[in-house]
Each structure stands twice: as C-alpha cells, then as structure tokens.
Prior knowledge:
The chain is an alpha+beta fold. It is 39% helix and 15% strand. A hairpin with a 4-residue loop joins β1 and β2 (12-17).
Amino acid sequence: MKLNVAYPVTACQKTFEIDDERKLRIFYDKRMGQEVDMSSIDDQWKGYIAKISGGNDKQGFPMKQGVLTNQRVRLLLRKGHSCYRPRRDGERRRKSVRGCIVDGNLSVLNLVIVKKGEGDVAGLTDKSIPRPLGPKRASKIRKLFNLSYEDDVRKYVVRRELPAKDGKKARSKAPKIQRLITPRVLQRRRHRLALKRRRAIQRREQASEYHKLLAQRQKEKAMEKRAARRSASLRSSASKSITESSSIKKFPMPAKSKITTKVAAAETKVLEKRGKVQKVQAAVKPKAATPAKFKMQAKPNAASAAAAGKTTAAKKTITKKTKSSGKK
C-alpha cells in the first residue's frame, strides 16, 4: 500500500510505499478523519501524528466520508456530493464509491500531518515550496501585509520572476489587482449618484404634474356632475308644467253646432242692415280653435231646438213686414 503524506506548513507532499502488512495494521478499521500515531511505522516517523483524509482502492474507486462500510457501494449522487461532478444542471447519477473505513484492499491512503515529530522526513519537512501566486484582491493584499487604506496596494503585489530568454532581459509577472479604488472608479461612482439624484428629481416633478392634472380632471368631472344635476332639475320642472297644462286641456268647451252658426250668421246680416255690426262683432268674438283630437260634434238638445224655432219665426215675421211695406 502507498501512503500519500502531505505537510501543509511547507506545502510539500510525498508518497511512501510500504509492503509490510504489520506496519499498516495501525490504519486498519480506522475511519476518515481519525488521527493515527505513525511512530510504529519507522524511526523517522517517531512523534508524528497524521489524519486520514481519504484513499482509493485497487480499482480506483474513491473513499467517501459518511459511508460506514469497508466495501464498495452504489449511491445516487447529485451536485454538492463528493466523488461526483455533474455535467448538466440537476443531473444525478448512481456511482460506485468505497466506504470510509480503511482495510487491506486500498492501493493508496491519503494522510495529512497534524503534528510534526522529533526529526525531519526527507523531501517532506526539510524543505519548503514557496507559494507561486500571491493574493490578487486588494483587500486580501492589505490583510497579508497589514496595510491601511492610505497605503498604495500596487507596491505590495507579489511578483513572479520569469527566466530570461535568448538575448532578452529577465522580466517578472504580477496579477492585475481586483477591486482597486482608483480616481476613475470614484468618478464613475459620483456619476452614478448624480444620475440617481437626477432621476429622483425628475420623478418628483412628474409626480407633481400628475397630481395637478388629476386635480384638474376631478374638478372638471365635479363641474360636469353639477351641470348634469342642474339640467335634470330644469327638465323635471318643465315636464311638471307640461303635465299641468295637458290636464287642463283634457276637458275643453264643446264646439258650436252648425245650426247655431247659421242662425248667428243670419242675425249678423240683419244687424248689419240696421248699422249695429260693430257692436255685434265686439259682443260675439270667435273662440280659439280646439285641437282636432278634442273636436266633438255636440248633439242638438231641446233648448237649441227651441231657439232655432224662434229664429225661424222671427225670419217669417220680417219677410211678411217687408212684403206688406212693398205693397203699400
């Protein structure tokens, strides 16, 4: 079995192959995350304590934390689970994984040194690998070098020296600092705030104009309602007067009969001869004509018949007198 040992302090990592089964027994039946004393492996590991971080079996299937078995199982895995990387959104797959308990069927066991022992292990603790890339964000550079906001962050960027090419000068590379506050950033911020203020003023003006227009429309609507009420009251009063006049005209005076009109005509002729036409016209005025629908022919009653008889008798006497006067 291979032991892949990492030491975070020096950023070094080294693999050791151990064939002796007795030396590996200290790892058997241990779970991922447990710490193991490595003093029994060899003298160079005296005082070292390592934590089991994982491993792979002989077929290459990885160990999964939380699966309490030393065998291989098939689990339905989705995004966020270890030992699986989804290719599509929401994708799930059933994958074969090994349990978190160590046994002899593993090919590689991953260990992390938690506590350093008495001596150094060659290639692991005796050298250190520098960090190739420094921090890129401005706030993280300040945190690393304990800088204040007044200090210039650009002077503290970790630069990486590149080897010189044929006949050219050696040069260095540095990352582009992110979230750096520059005069242009401040200018854009001021511009955004100015636009925001301008929009707020414009919204206030539009709101005031809208409220004015709304008040005017409401006033016009109220005036229209008042005018409608006034016209309705005028119409109702006019209809009342019409109904009163129509009730008066329901029962008009009866029209004169034909006989009476003839008698009246004869009398007027006689009176004209005597020179009393003006008085008769003033006394007897023609009444206003009644509507056609209210015209009714009155039947001659007894009184009218008697009057007709008298008029005929008067005519006869007048004719006799005229004849007698002519004879004389």
